[in-house]
Amino acid sequence: MTPSRPTVSPAARALLERSAEIHDLQNAAALLSWDRQTMMPPGGHAGRGRQLATLAAIVHERWTDPGFADAVEALAAEAPPPGSDEAALVRLSRRALRQATAVPVDLVKALALATSEAQRVWVDARERADAAAFAGPLAEVIRLRREEADALGWTEHRYDALHDTYEPGSSKARLDAVFGPLRQRLAALIERVRDHASDVDDGPLRVPLAPAAQEAFVRQVAADLGYDFGRGRLDPTVHPFCQAVGPGDVRITTRYAERFLPTALFGTMHEAGHALYEQGFREEDLGTPLGTFASLGVHESQSRLWENHVGRGLPFWEGRYAALRAAFPGAFDDVPLERFVRAVNRVAPSFIRVEADEVTYPLHVILRYELEVALLDGDLAAADLSGAWNEGMRDLLGVTPPDDAQGCLQDVHWSMGAFGYFPTYALGSMMSAQLWEAIRRDRPDLDDEVREGRFAPLLAWLREHVHAPGARYEPDDLLRRATGAPLEADAYLRHLTAKVDALIDAPADA
């Protein structure tokens, strides 16, 4: 696909043509990866690993082709003005070129093969709750990711090189500066609500609901939010994710728990938030470095915004509760609306990150961050991960997982080699609160719009301020343009404090 941008210079067009070919190859790899986690039979893992390794090598070859570097510098020589699309193309292309040329192709292929095998083993180990079975493949992924970090180069900490690939400009020092105070503030909030946890009963959510009925309901919710099923699809998987596999094709997945609706409901809303971002890039940017996300933190801000600020809010359920009761006859007839909303906002330490409440959720992320730093530093062996995980859960949340499936094997990310990714969940949660405050300032009737099921105005705001810019701006710059301030934790803490206050001040459930 060659992007249609009729006003660009010949130098820009030459660069865009090369970028489009790379994006097509990456999308082909993305489709193979999506299939591996949804439709592929178990016997296909070895062959799929080789296919992905071959594609990774071809993509690496295209990035490191001297002609690509020449095209970048030819555009740079035109001295495009700061803030222009051409200047952004130069910045993004130089960054991609720098990262690609730093990592040898043999390492690229080795990582593709190792992560493919690790994901295969992880699925089986998770099913059997056997962390020891996963230790060997995980150790190999860690070894290769260390090599990659060293190849990319770093000054203060090896973690910086990997984290920067997901969150440009961020670093371990920045994360420590953010997470240290956040951890203390969250601990204080959890302590406040601890004595009131029994006041909120989530029993109404733990009723048997047929997966087919759940699927129909969550599909309708996703469509109502604005997810375009004409350019996407919803499928079941072990660990929910969103995958863009090309222009006009952004897919989401979820999983169903027969006796806990929030697993599928909020998982689908979360992934739909990701997909709405991907479906919101400008058409003329697709297939170019501009037509992608600013960072994984920005990406997570979209999923967390729709999941929590919309999906767990009273206005959403004031407009949706009748439809929920109709979708599951008899299941919620005796549950008042207010009790249901309190149940989906219950704050209590739990084992599973993707099902955690908003207040305890960041502590799950901080635990993973601390563990993966230790794994990369060599201070923690893969074979000892289970014990370290359980100890961390006790220290941070006061609970101990009953098995490895609900402990260190619950997330797919490390099997994918995604070291440096986890912090973006907390950064994205912070961004979502900051964006939500800005949206409420701009749209004082937001609650009424959500209550009435009119999500188009909210989506339009996000399209304008977050989605359409794509990767034109650095994450902090994008957030500053949208909210008037760079990333800070104040809005997030205001949001969480208000949630705790509401739970404590409301009468206990009967």
Plain-language structure description:
With 510 residues, this protein is mostly helical. It has 2 domains: 10-156, no CATH class; 172-207 and 292-505, Neurolysin, domain 3. It has 20 helices and 3 strands. It has a 3-stranded mixed beta sheet with strand order 1-3-2. Helix 9 (211-225) runs parallel beside helix 10. The longest helix has 29 residues, at 10-38. The N and C termini lie far apart (60 Å).
How are the secondary structure elements laid out?
Elements: H1 10-38, H2 45-64, H3 66-76, H4 85-102, H5 105-128, H6 131-152, H7 158-166, H8 172-194, H9 211-225, E1 234-236, E2 242-246, E3 249-254, H10 262-278, H11 296-310, H12 314-327, H13 337-344, H14 361-377, H15 385-397, H16 423-442, H17 446-451, H18 456-467, H19 475-483, H20 490-505
Parallel strand pairs: 1-3
Antiparallel strand pairs: 2-3
What would you call the structural class? mainly alpha
Rounded to the nearest angstrom, the radius of gyration is 23 Å
CATH topology of the largest domain, which one? Answer: Neurolysin, domain 3
Distance between the termini: 60 Å
CATH architecture identity of the largest domain? Orthogonal Bundle
Number of discrete helical segments: 20
Mean pLDDT: 95
Oligomer: single chain
Number of domains: 2
Helix-strand sequence? HHHHHHHHHEEEHHHHHHHHHHH
In percent, how much strand structure appears in the residues?
Answer: under 5%
Indicate the overall shape: globular
Question: How many β-strand runs?
Answer: 3
Please give the CATH class of the largest domain: Mainly Alpha
Largest sheet composition = 3 strands, mixed
Kindly report the spatial arrangement of strands forming the biggest sheet: 1-3-2
Q: What fraction, in percent, of the residue positions are helical?
A: 55-70%
Catalogue the unreliable spans. Answer: none
